[in-house]
Amino acid sequence: VIVIGGLAALVLTSSGWPEVRETFFSWSEFKNAFPEVLDGFWLDVKVFLGVEAAVLVIALVLALIRISTSAGLFPLRLLTTVFVDVSRGIPTVLLVYLIGFGIPALRIVEPAPSPVILGAIALTISYSGYVSEVYRAGIRSVHRGQHDAALAVGLTHSQAMRLVILPQGIRRVVPPLLNDFISLQKDAALISIIGPVEAFRAAQILQGENFNFTPLVAAALLYLAVTVPLARVVDRMGGTEGAVR
Fold it and tell me: Sign of torsion, CA 50 56 59 61?
């Protein structure tokens, strides 16, 4: 309270505060900009939900391939490892650039997919690598005895994985998965660099027209309206998981 109060007093009593308040926290600019920024934010939400659904499935497949021990799957494991390393090693913003501008330039499909689709593909590739490692860690954390016990009661290896190992492993990694998806919800704004007018891009356009940064604050508040509740869910789930253990 003392630190926050001191910072607030420092900011509010500074000589430049009136100008900053008008430039960043203008109520009239906020009211004018909010509808357009909100329209752009719905695009963020659609991209986020679509990419999240795709990542959950693709990442699980990648994780299952990487933990397999079959000699016949070695080439597939090698390709999966390369994919995960590359997707995690390249910054997401560069993937958006490469896919957003590279695929249309190849002219593989005519007409080229929309920038929204291309941006969603780039985000899916990037986050599939991260989430697959989260899945893999969760599956590996399940004690070997669980697998042996499942085989002992007559289940096959695939049944043991599907009915015993996966449910426990995925349950353990729900909090870190939600953390990744909080990051994904914010990174959905990166698709604006290849054209789509989502919340951040809409705020930038309005800021450029009026030379006022309040629309950017409006966009930030919309992102906070989603990320803060998700963060609280993660905190609660983490606490519940710790209590169960």
Answer: negative
Of 39-53, 98-112, 134-148, 224-238, give the range with the top mean pLDDT.
39-53
How many whole angstroms separate alpha carbon 151 and alpha carbon 147?
6
Could you tell me the CA-to-CA distances from 90 to 125, 161, 193 in Å, in that order? 10, 32, 17
pTM for the whole thing? 0.85
Choose among 196, 219, 205: nearest CA to 24: 219
If one counts every other C-beta atom within 10 angstroms of the C-beta of residue 33, the result is 25
**Cα–Cα separations (whole angstroms), residue 76 to 64, 67, 68, 69, 162:** 11, 11, 10, 11, 20
Cβ contact 230:181 at 8 Å: yes
Tens digit of pLDDT for each residue in 183-224? 898 899 899 999 888 899 999 999 888 889 999 999 999 999
